Automatic annotation (TrEMBL):
<dbReference type="GO" id="GO:0006811">
    <property type="term" value="P:monoatomic ion transport"/>
</dbReference>
<dbReference type="GO" id="GO:0046930">
    <property type="term" value="C:pore complex"/>
</dbReference>
<dbReference type="GO" id="GO:0009279">
    <property type="term" value="C:cell outer membrane"/>
</dbReference>
<feature type="domain" description="Porin">
    <location>
        <begin position="12"/>
        <end position="439"/>
    </location>
</feature>
<dbReference type="InterPro" id="IPR050298">
    <property type="entry name" value="Gram-neg_bact_OMP"/>
</dbReference>
<dbReference type="InterPro" id="IPR033900">
    <property type="entry name" value="Gram_neg_porin_domain"/>
</dbReference>
<keyword id="KW-0626">Porin</keyword>
<keyword id="KW-1134">Transmembrane beta strand</keyword>
<keyword id="KW-0406">Ion transport</keyword>
<feature type="signal peptide">
    <location>
        <begin position="1"/>
        <end position="24"/>
    </location>
</feature>
<keyword id="KW-0472">Membrane</keyword>
<comment type="subunit">
    <text>Homotrimer.</text>
</comment>
<keyword id="KW-0732">Signal</keyword>
<protein>
    <submittedName>
        <fullName>Outer membrane protein (Porin)</fullName>
    </submittedName>
</protein>
<dbReference type="GO" id="GO:0015288">
    <property type="term" value="F:porin activity"/>
</dbReference>
<dbReference type="Pfam" id="PF13609">
    <property type="entry name" value="Porin_4"/>
</dbReference>
<keyword id="KW-0813">Transport</keyword>
């Protein structure tokens, strides 16, 4: 089996690399003959921007694609558990459209803002993770399509939606729906940030759970003094949000002579994650409606430290530059400070039909995530490799629970290993051709529910930006 996996990974990487090189060669000549696209679509300080990505994916063990979010589930720790090889048209989940505002108002001040929404270009639907859960309610796992957690739940602006003021002297103050500090810092120190389906941090959340990635009703202040920068963020919990309790975060870092380092702390209170109702658990007498969500409420406390170093190869007689990445994050999950109730709402206004406020009644859960990687950029090419390891610690789910590290129960200790490689060729400022491969494997308690605890996936396609 190990030989098969290695062969599959090598084959997929070769196919992806060949696809990038061949497509890039053909597209370069074609694009040169097309009318020139403006570098930006800006009027009176307002810029219209967007991204469309479409491609192809193959997974050795996957599930059929749905239509309310991305296409293929490229990593094994996903829902539902993969059950057969999948070959399909695919999207990386990067497609979206938005407006950016940057308008000088004098005395060194700017009005800034962003409105953004994501969509699936293969279906035309707005990104809606909650809908992917609703669609599976009452179905056996063998009939389910790709689904998952997230903060994009069909809202008009399911990405970012914020406004504020910026000053080179006094810093930047923004308010609205903002990416959390941990999510923002993770992205900056992830070698696969531009190919997020190949990244454990970006795809499944890693140390920052995807259901707490964006904070509604939040305010953020950022300040930079020379090489040092710092940020603080606060969110007031509310209905129709994944954050129901007051939450806060802080970040400090520095950049100098090619080195960059950041530390982040984040506390999310009464944050919700959702899952699907099993067969017979909804839609019948004395059960919740199948149009509602099954939800777990929790507090999530995390901290992390990460760094990178960029080395210019010109001094060595070579072209381009190489950047090395490394990071560590710790996350602790515990019961919510203020229990939620049936009838409360989450992102997108979806209703809670069943709530678990005591998932960690007998002890909190700890997770540790580490990663390393490198990115080489030369001319139009960007080549990246990365490795991610997340360890889940044993946690008690009953008074009689005893430590374990096997697959006898989901609360046993376990690990997720993920390795990936990618190649991107920038045809011009607006068009990229990409290819990549990702391998992931589960062990211990994380294998519960997974008949095949490993998966290899190859992806290739185009990304158009304006």
């Amino acid at each position: 089996m190990g030989t098969f996996l290695r062969s599959a990974a090598i084959g997929l990487m070769a196919i992806a690399g060949f696809s990038v090189a061949a497509a890039a060669a053909d597209l370069s000549d074609t694009v040169k003959a097309l009318p020139k696209i403006p570098d930006s679509l800006t009027w009176q300080g307002i810029t219209l921007y967007g991204t469309i990505d479409v491609g192809y994916g193959y997974a050795t063990t996957g599930a059929p694609v749905g239509g309310s979010y991305w296409g293929l589930n490229p990593q094994v720790l996903a829902a539902p558990a993969g059950r057969a090889p999948v070959s399909t048209l695919n999207t990386l989940g990067l497609s979206g459209i938005g407006l950016k505002i940057e308008e000088n108002i004098g005395s060194g001040w700017q009005v800034i803002g962003k409105l953004q929404t994501g969509f699936n270009p293969l279906t035309g639907k707005l990104d809606d993770m909650c809908a992917t859960r609703i669609q599976q309610n009452g179905l056996p796992a063998s009939q389910q399509t790709v689904n998952g957690n997230g903060t994009r739940c069909g809202q008009a602006f399911n990405g970012e939606a914020w406004g504020g003021l910026k000053s080179d002297t006094y810093g930047t103050l923004t308010a609205g729906r903002i990416i959390s500090l941990a999510g923002d810092v993770d992205w900056q120190y992830d070698p696969q940030s531009t190919m997020w389906n190949l990244s454990y941090l970006q795809f499944l959340g890693g140390g920052i759970p995807s259901f707490g990635y964006r904070w509604d009703n939040s305010v953020k202040y950022a300040y930079q003094y020379g090489p040092v920068h710092a940020q603080v963020m606060y969110a007031q919990g509310a209905e129709a949000s994944n954050l129901h309790g007051n939450s806060y975060s802080a970040n400090i870092g520095a950049t100098s002579h090619g080195f960059s380092i950041d530390a982040v702390y984040q506390m999310m209170r009464d944050v919700v994650s959702d899952s699907t109702f099993r067969v017979g658990a909804c839609g019948t007498a004395s059960t919740p409606s199948c149009s509602t969500l099954k939800v777990t409420a929790q507090n999530v406390e995390l901290w992390g430290i990460m760094g990178k170093y960029t080395y210019d190869l010109a001094g060595q007689g070579l072209g381009g530059k190489v950047t090395f990445y490394a990071g560590f994050q710790h996350a602790n999950y515990s019961n919510p400070s203020d229990p939620l109730s049936v009838g409360d709402t989450v992102a997108g206004g979806y209703t809670i039909g069943l709530i678990n406020n005591t998932a960690y009644l007998y002890g909190s859960q700890n997770q540790h995530t580490v990663w390393i990687g490198a990115k080489y950029e030369t001319g139009p090419w960007t080549l990246s490799v990365a490795y991610y390891l997340e360890n889940q610690g044993f946690y008690k789910i009953s008074p009689a629970s005893t430590p374990c590290s096997t697959n006898i129960s989901f609360n046993c200790s376990g690990a997720t290993n993920t390795a990936s490689g990618s190649a991107i060729y920038a045809v011009n400022k607006h068009l990229d051709v990409y290819g990549g491969v990702v391998w992931s494997q589960l062990s211990g308690g994380l294998t519960v529910g997974y008949a095949t605890p490993y998966q290899t996936t190859g992806l290739t396609g185009l990304i158009f930006r304006f």
